[in-house]
Amino acid sequence: MSHGNTTDAERVASAFTWPMVPVGADPLFRMPFEIGIAMYRQWLGASSRLLQDQSAYLQNLAECDDPLNMLVCQTEFAEKSVVAGLDELRRGVDAITDTACEQLIVDRALPQ
User: Could you name the domain of life of the organism this protein comes from (predicted)?
Assistant: First the structure.
């Protein structure tokens, strides 16, 4: 993903906040909302990256001149898709756990 798209995705994702939850509210009350926001931001970024991969694949497929090149292009895309899907899953889990742990540590809900 290009730098410009990263900035746009982050800008759009940052607009999704939860202002209705009071800042001083119980961290266990706020946590589901914070995790939901983190998941949604992650989903927006993942969708952007995967759509760009699909666009590049279609461009490569359009440039293929024989059936063997098309088969190679499709195989490469399938491999990249599996790797990208697993990477996005890892990023999503990391985002959720980081958000949950950060929220609990900042609000001192976990014992030191």
Answer: Bacteria
